């Protein structure tokens, strides 16, 4: 009596065979944390539309230790998601040519980080100015 080999699907674990794909799948998984924070913001907007008491309750809930831990986890995952996005940005852009020379991948990544830092500082300055 012959033994049959179990059927193995040819695409099982395809992403586990290459470190680039592993990092890519982790990057895509962290997008769920970005969506979760979007949901938190939508909940805040909904509570704001329900009046002052609902808004104050939402703010109080955000100050609980569990909510703070949740936001710390979200911050870490969104930070990693952003970092990996900037890291793969040179691979997703068409070649950038400046002065007849191709811009290096490191310069594109650094430019993305610098633009984000400047935009964040500008936004912080605007918010700081409004609150004073």
Gist of the model:
73% of the residues lie in helices and 3% in strands.
Describe this structure in words.
With 132 residues, this protein is mainly α. 73% of the residues lie in helices and 3% in strands. It is built from four helices and two strands, in the order αααββα. A two-stranded antiparallel ribbon has the order 1-2. A hairpin with a 2-residue loop joins strand 1 (97-98) and strand 2. The mean pLDDT is 90. This is Fumarate reductase subunit C. Pfam families: Fumarate_red_C (PF02300). The chain crosses the membrane at residues 21-48, 68-86, 107-130. InterPro entries: Fumarate_red_C (IPR003510), SQR/QFR_C/D (IPR034804).
Principal-axes geometry comes out as flat
What is the total tally of β strands? Answer: 2
Q: Please name the CATH topology of the largest domain.
A: 3 helical TM bundles of succinate and fumarate reductases
Share of β-strand residues: under 5%
Q: How is the quaternary structure best described?
A: single chain
Parts with pLDDT < 50 across at least 5 consecutive residues: none
Strand arrangement within the widest β-sheet reads: 1-2
Q: Count of DSSP helices?
A: 4
Q: Mean pLDDT, rounded to whole units?
A: 90
State the major sheet.
2 strands, antiparallel
Helix content: over 70%
Structural classification: mainly alpha
Number of domains: 2
What's the architecture of the largest domain, going by CATH?
Answer: Up-down Bundle
Protein name: Fumarate reductase subunit C
Keywords: Cell membrane, Membrane, Transmembrane, Transmembrane helix
Transmembrane segments: 21-48, 68-86, 107-130
Organism: Chromobacterium sinusclupearum
């Amino acid at each position: 009596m012959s033994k049959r080999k179990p059927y193995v699907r040819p695409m099982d674990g395809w992403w586990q065979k290459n470190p680039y794909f592993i990092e890519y799948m982790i990057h895509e998984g962290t997008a769920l944390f970005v969506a979760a924070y979007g949901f938190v913001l939508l909940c805040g907007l909904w509570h704001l539309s329900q009046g002052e008491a609902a808004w104050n309750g939402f703010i109080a809930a955000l100050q609980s230790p569990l909510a703070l831990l949740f936001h710390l986890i979200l911050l870490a995952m969104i930070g990693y998601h952003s970092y990996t996005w900037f890291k793969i940005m040179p691979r997703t852009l068409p070649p950038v040519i400046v002065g007849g020379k191709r811009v290096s991948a490191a310069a594109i990544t650094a430019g993305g980080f610098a633009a984000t830092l400047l935009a964040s500082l500008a936004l912080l300055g605007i918010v700081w100015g409004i609150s004073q």
